[in-house]
Design goal:
With about 220 residues, the chain is an alpha/beta fold. The chain has two domains: about 150 residues, 3-Layer(bba) Sandwich (FAD/NAD(P)-binding domain); about 60 residues, no CATH class. About 30% of the residues lie in helices and about 20% in strands. The chain contains six helices and eight strands. Strands 3-2-1-8 form a four-stranded parallel beta sheet, covered by helices on one side. Strands 4, 5, 6 and 7 form a four-stranded antiparallel beta sheet that branches. A hairpin with a 5-residue loop joins strand 4 and strand 5. Helix 2 runs parallel beside helix 3. The chain is globular and about 60 Å long. The protein starts with a helix and ends in a 6-residue tail after the last helix.
Length: about 220
């Protein structure tokens, strides 16, 4: 986030660029929208190369049976960042089903490479988790590493301390519309309840949870 914020400030008011990708081997860890923005920014700054690590599998070319219309089509496609990288370097910068294992530094304690490995997704007790593929370790050059990783769930240590019930995806279990958890007087809303989502959903759930808290405290509510 610091990288994108500093770059935007430079474009808007000419502020000094604190983090530059110019002439560097850039590795972006994360395959979402923020990762795409990082890829495009690095390309525009004149990076030497850019690699985007995506822990999820490459999407299919056509819809799968479990992704019917009118659901959003989960298909392989290039966003603007990958398109710009492909135009400059000749290929999609994303590497799928891989994750970082170790940052490798030089004598000056600056990153010079990343050790990565392939993963396979396993399912256990209704939850998916990535398992390392043995013998798949390798190093890729990296002078600048940008962390754009997604949300995998709320902090387990916090949830264990309050002993709140969780759903199969590790989120706090609280019915939409009520937002009450298994712990008395504890309500949950937003990403911690529904998982990673859009800010408009966070706003919607925050307002709705406030209404239900008001109803709980006062016996009724005037909040919409």
């Amino acid at each position: 986030m610091e990288y994108l914020t500093h770059n935007t400030r430079r474009l808007l008011d000419g502020s000094p660029l604190e983090i530059s990708a110019e002439g560097k081997h850039v590795v972006v860890i994360g395959g979402g929208d923020t990762g795409t923005d990082c890829v495009a920014t690095a390309v525009r700054q004149g990076c030497r190369s850019v690699t985007q690590l995506e822990i999820m599998p490459r999407p299919p070319q056509e819809r799968r049976v479990d992704n019917p219309w009118p659901q959003w089509p989960k298909l392989y496609q290039l966003d603007y960042g990958q398109e710009e990288a492909k135009a400059k370097f000749g290929a999609d910068p994303r590497q799928f089903l891989v994750t970082a294992e170790e940052f490798c530094t030089n004598a000056d304690d600056r990153v010079e490479a990343i050790r990565i490995h392939a993963v396979e997704w396993r399912q256990e007790a209704g939850r998916l988790w990535p398992e390392k593929v043995r013998g798949s370790e390798r190093r890729i050059p990296a002078d600048l590493v940008l962390l754009a990783m997604g949300f995998l769930g709320p902090e387990e240590s916090v949830l264990k301390d309050i002993a709140v019930e969780q759903d199969p995806r590790s989120n706090i279990k609280a019915p939409y519309g009520r937002f009450a958890t298994s712990v008395p007087k504890l309500f949950a809303a937003g990403d911690v309840r529904r998982g990673q989502s859009l800010v408009v959903w966070a706003i919607n759930e925050g307002r709705s949870a406030a209404r239900e808290i008001d109803r709980f405290l006062m016996g009724s509510t005037d909040l919409a």
